[in-house]
Design a protein that fits this description.
By secondary structure, the chain is mainly α. The protein has 3 helices and 2 strands. It has a two-stranded antiparallel sheet. It is flat and about 60 Å long.
Length: 94
């Protein structure tokens, strides 16, 4: 079988077809950081699980769903650039 792929189609390698590798690495770093914090501050297993899930699941869901099919790292860079150089553009039609 030969498939014709349009030239404007971008191939993005993804982990399990859901999440791209940059975002997966960012999620792994966030999970490792949370794991260290949760083990440092809490002693009971149930508290550790609840805190880890409560802090990791929203971040991972946001990274999987994304914003307009943008990469999570790209969104963070856009937000960072916006806060560095905030300008208000106002368009008034006369």
């Amino acid at each position: 079988m030969n498939f014709i792929i349009p030239k404007n189609y971008k191939f993005k390698p993804k982990l399990l077809g859901i999440i791209d590798y940059q975002t997966a690495i960012l999620n792994a770093i966030w999970a490792a950081f949370l794991y260290l914090l949760v083990n440092l501050f809490f002693h009971t297993l149930s508290t550790k699980v609840y805190c880890f899930a409560g802090l990791f699941l929203p971040f991972s869901l946001f990274s999987i769903i994304g914003m307009n099919n943008e990469n999570m790292i790209s969104v963070i860079v856009y937000i960072f650039k916006f806060y560095l150089r905030q300008k208000i553009f106002l368009f008034r039609k006369q």
